[in-house]
Design brief:
Elements (H helix, E strand, L loop, with lengths): L1 H13 L7 E10 L12 E11 L3 E6 L6 H9 L6 E7 L2 E2 L2 H7 E4 L11 H12 L6 H14 L15 H13 L5 E5 L7 H15 L4 E5 L5 H5 L3 E6 L2 E7 H10 L10 H9 L8 H12 L11 H4 L3 H7 L20 H18 L1 H21 L10 H39 L5 H28 L8 H28 L2 H17 L17 H4 L1 H14 L18 H7 L7 H29 L2
Helix pairs in contact: 1-5, 4-5, 4-6, 14-15, 14-17, 15-16, 15-17, 16-17, 16-18, 16-19, 16-21, 17-18, 18-19, 18-21, 18-23, 21-23
The structure holds adenosine-5'-triphosphate.
Length: 618
């Protein structure tokens, strides 16, 4: 009985109740390359008016030499690229509605960007939480995950962490994530790249079994073996951004032969098609191109046989009425929204995942905390008991400055280094409509909060009392609040930089931004000693606000005279010492407000940068 239910469910996953035929006419795609010389003003044309049709229940291969435009065609058809695109894309003969289509399709890119610290099962569970209706029970979700593990041959690797999976397993896992919503259309960019022949065959045979359920599956493919090639039903050959052949694989040899390209006996037909596309078998491929064009337009190339969106609004009710969707169930509360689950649910799932990743990588979190405590103890030893000594105010100021710099750089570089990788996962998941960037941003701040507070606190507790800083609770908490703010600025700058550039460049960028700011902190150069036209820079330097706030918490608020253990101490009066830095009238709360504005500004930059990256990648 149990086995029967399993079999029925696995058949159900394979089955697809929406049949979608994708058509495209006169599709052009061009990009504006980075302008390096005056001559490069013309956009680079990648797809030159291609036509084609990808049918449901058929596994289609896109073949062509490197640079022919295979990935570009997939990017455009899946809706991942939209700028620089002209032409018509239709779904079942109706003009494509990109947003709707993105909900009904998935695109699995060449690189599988997954969270290495989660197991295979957890990865599917997270995807299920984002993609499935909240009404689907945990038991149903688990059953579905088990079925997908079974279907994709991942049962044995279910409890293995993604970072330890083989390339083929990762690829199948990416497919599994998208299968949870049973999308009728699936695009794959080189699903077999980097796989050995047996894993490639496994992946393609899984796709073949999915296609039999009625899906439309399109894969770009690179140098397939004869055996692999024969598993496809249809073929689409691209050469220099133009279509050379579109149709059944079984008809390919005959069509090529009609145009004068005879495939030798026992020759790999995929290799032959690529050789023709590369003009290795003769220069005159225009005949093939023209034939492919007439196939779609007919002799009188007019307006393509599609219906516009306005025209279909009347058709839609009947389409919807006839559909019986297995897993795609848009809950009432998210109806009309781009995402299957509510914002609150997106945040909660993202938070759970972040906590799980932190727990898995606990030694990294521990290391971060321990390094703060150890450096705190080290500084406590080096600057031992100098905090209330009038003859050592200069050394105490050096301690304040060093602590600030340590906290800043120690909380900056981890984000500059790690975020670019995380960004790739976020981009893939966001582009596949799992969650909004707002949900991600909120969850990121909340998930990082415990460490962002614990680390500076560990450092402060170790160093503050050893160095003999004032013991009043107010001063201690004011000091602590500045440290938390410095760590938050570092995190925000690290995230914004990580979102904008790669780590190698990021290290250079943050150093270039941060080091000049240090000059204007008021420690190295007194404010009154700065060139007048440069003084405004000290008002934008966050280090100035942080340093001034630290000085206020230690020496401000009419602190009584410091003890002097030498014959003469010039700075027995803390106020006199503050005057030396031009900080006697500074206000702690104004400085805190300055730091807060910086944090808010950097978080906004981080968010906009993420949005910008999503947009330019389209
Ligand atoms: N954003 C871009 N800017 C400039 N050129 C681009 C851009 N995107 C693609 N191209 C160019 O367009 C052409 C087609 O690229 P595409 O990635 O689609 O090729 P492909 O057939 O998938 O190649 P491969 O098999 O090597 O992956 C290439 O010459 C590529 O350099």
């Amino acid at each position: 009985m149990e086995n029967q239910t399993k079999f029925r469910r696995s058949q159900e996953i394979k089955k697809c109740h929406h049949h979608k035929n994708i058509g495209f006419r006169n599709l052009c795609y061009s990009v504006q390359e980075n302008k390096v010389s005056a001559r490069q003003e013309q956009p680079k044309v990648i797809l030159r008016g291609v036509n084609g049709e990808f049918r449901s229940g058929r596994l289609t291969a896109i073949l062509g030499p490197s640079g022919a435009g295979k990935s570009s065609l997939l990017n455009v058809l899946s809706g991942f690229k939209s700028s620089g695109v002209t032409g018509y894309i239709t779904v079942n003969g109706v003009e494509r509605n990109t947003e709707e289509f993105r909900r009904e399709s998935c695109y699995i890119t060449q690189n599988c960007y997954l969270m290495d610290l989660l197991t295979t099962r957890e990865t599917l569970a997270v995807a299920a939480s984002f993609k499935l209706n909240a009404k689907v029970t945990t038991r149903e979700k688990n059953d579905m995950i088990n079925d997908i593990l079974e279907l994709l041959g991942l049962r044995k690797a279910a409890e293995t962490r993604v970072g330890k999976l083989s390339g083929g397993e990762k690829k199948r896992l990416s497919i599994g994530q998208e299968l949870l919503t049973n999308p009728p259309v699936m695009f794959f960019d080189e699903p077999t790249s980097g796989l050995d022949s047996s894993s490639s065959l496994q992946v393609i045979s899984h796709l073949k079994s999915l296609v039999r359920g009625g899906r439309t599956i399109v894969c770009s493919i690179h140098q397939p073996s004869s055996r692999l090639f024969e598993m496809f039903d249809d073929l689409y050959v691209l050469a220099e951004g133009q279509c050379l052949y579109s149709g059944a694989i079984s008809d390919m040899t005959a069509v090529f032969q009609e145009s004068g390209f005879k495939c030798p006996k026992y020759y790999n037909r995929a290799d032959f098609a690529v050789e023709v596309a590369c003009r290795e078998r003769g220069m005159n491929i225009e005949k093939l191109i023209a034939k492919a064009e007439t196939h779609f337009h007919g002799p009188d190339t007019g307006r393509a046989d599609y219906i516009t969106n306005e025209e279909t609004s009347m058709l839609r009710p009947s389409i919807k009425k006839n559909s019986t969707d297995t897993y795609i169930q848009v809950p009432q509360e998210t109806m009309g929204s781009r995402y299957p689950v509510t914002l609150a649910r997106q945040i909660s799932v993202l938070l759970k995942r972040a906590v799980l990743c932190t727990i898995r990588d606990l030694h990294l979190a521990q290391l971060r905390l321990v390094s703060h405590v150890v450096i705190g103890l080290f500084l406590g030893g080096v600057f031992y008991g100098i905090g209330d000594e009038a003859s050592k105010v200069a050394s105490n100021t050096a301690f304040l400055m060093f602590s600030m710099m340590f906290l800043f750089f120690c909380n900056l570089f981890p984000f500059v280094h790690s975020f670019p990788l995380e960004k790739l996962v976020v981009m893939r998941e966001h582009m596949n409509n799992w969650y909004s960037l707002e949900a991600y941003h909120i969850s990121k701040i909340v998930a990082e909060l415990p460490l962002q507070i614990l680390c500076p606190t560990g450092f402060l507790v170790s160093a503050y009392f050893l160095t003999g800083q004032p013991t009043e609770a107010t001063r201690f908490f004011q000091f602590w609040a500045v440290f938390i703010m410095v760590a938050a600025i570092a995190q925000s700058l690290g995230l914004a930089t990580g979102a904008a550039v790669e780590p190698q460049l990021g290290v250079f960028v943050v150093s270039t931004i941060a080091l000049p700011m240090l000059i204007f902190s008021g420690f190295y150069l007194r404010l009154q000693d700065m060139q007048v036209f440069l003084q405004w820079l000290s008002y934008v330097a966050y280090f100035r606000y942080a340093f001034e706030a630290l000085m206020q918490s230690v020496y401000g608020y009419d602190r009584p005279y410091l003890k002097c253990s030498e014959a003469y101490c010039h700075f027995k009066s803390p106020r006199k010492y503050l005057e030396e830095f031009d900080m006697e009238d500074a206000n702690y709360w104004t400085d805190m407000l300055g730091l807060l504005v910086w944090i808010a500004a950097l978080q906004i930059v981080f968010h906009l940068m993420l949005k910008f990256k999503m947009r330019v990648s389209r």
